Amino acid sequence: MFRKDKESYSRFYSILGFYPHNISLYEQALLHKSTAVKSEKGRPLNNERLEFLGDAILDAIVADIVFKQFEGKREGFLTNTRSKIVQRETLNKLAVEIGLDKLIKYSTRTSSHNSYMCGNAFEALIGAIYIDRGYAACKYFMEEKIIKRFIDLEKVARKEVNFKSKLIEWTQKNKVIVSFELIEQFLDKESNPIFQSEVLIEGLSAGTGIGYSKKESQQNAAKMAMKKVQTTPNFLDEVFDAAKKRVEAAVIASAPEETTSINPIGENSNSSETTEYIDGNEDTTECTDKEIATYQTSV
Question: What are the catalytic residues (predicted)?
Answer without folding.
Answer: 55, 123
